Amino acid sequence: MSTSPQPDIRPARLPADAYATAFADATPRLTHAQALLEAERCLYCFDAPCATACPTSIDVPSFIRRIADENLRGAARTILESNPLGGMCARVCPTENLCEAVCVRNTQQGQPVAIGRLQRHAVDALMESDRPQLFTRAPDTGKTVAVVGAGPAGLACAHTLARLGHTVTVFDARAKAGGLNEYGLAAYKTPDNFAQREVQWLLDVGGISVRTGWKLQTTDQLETLRKNYDAVFLGLGLSSTHALGIPGEDLAGVQDAVDFIATLRQTPDKSTLPMGRRVIVIGGGMTAVDAAVQSKLLGAHVVHMVYRRGPEQMSASRAEQEWAQTHGVVLHHWLSPLEIEGQDGHEGRHVRAVRFAEQALVDGRLQPTGRELRWEADLVFKAIGQQLGNPVLAQAGLALDSGKIATDAEGQTNLPGVWAGGDCRAGGLDLTVEAVEHGKQSARAIHAYITRA
User: Fold this and answer.
1) Domain range holding 97?
2) What mean pLDDT is predicted for residues 78-86?
3) Other C-beta atoms within 10 Å of 131: how many?
4) pTM above 0.90, yes or no
């Protein structure tokens, strides 16, 4: 029996009153005065590059001008006409890489207009008003559409179709609608149950019903949907995670980061969540950052976030990387995991440490340098990407491209009457805002398809 110390994993690593502060809103809302001052910085450019950079083509100068005119309802309408999930996107969209990156103020002064925070200011004001619903549903067309997946793509598709008068049934495997917005984002990005409040706002337009606990597991299910509905939209997201493919991956204490984040999001009392003293997160994307930062917020003493390439290749934005470092996460680059070491414990074999091999680019290829590093760990989170992982799709005859569903520009698949969008669709950026645009594009194409003469 090993004499190594037992894993240091326990709940309530922080004082009880510290959790509310730790998981408070990451980006406090603008005050009325702050919003007016920020809106006045906008130059209201003709052919504004910020609007072009937005995947949902929000007319950014228009909604900011309405904020400056203190017409928040009008500003929200401009946003939500283009992006029905504009409230969540304002919270999680990498604006620093999209609209704000091309803001003229950014090139002139090195400080872009805070477009994302202004967008949130307008949408939040609408959501909290006495009349939050802006849109009305067109007369019922008698046409029905099945949407599989209640994430951003599926919800945007359903909302757009419902407004056009179609009746939509949304199927989802989880207990709540929302997809990534409900289960896959850090709690400090979406406090106060905003994801569910946004879902309810979307459903309030009418014509949409949600069936939870329904998972696409057989080709017969898909064929039944195609038979019983006039069209089908697949917004499945990515259901499985990539494996590290190294010894020790199945040890106790090794978890998928997406599962950790989902559990955290659904736990009201964060003090009840067990957390290790020493944590290693393997990966370089937003999921890795969210897992690493939230581990620190739950009381982990040291958190290593390890990526196999350099900082420029990380899918987490520079702002996300800095956010992690600000919260005490130690970022490491050019390290590839070799082995997760285990030790015998009271409840079986548990992770003890992780060994990494240092890498370097040699003639454009990653090669080991011969140097190894080892850190002890109580918990290890894997965050090296997700995949579609549903064999039913290929079995049903759907064409795949690099493991995702192949579609045309409007999301139509090779199966008649079936569209797809969001992370499950090949060739995308895996961004919430892009998933929303996929849902809108497909909804318009579906509308044309089911109403054709």
Assistant:
1) 32-127
2) 98
3) 7
4) yes
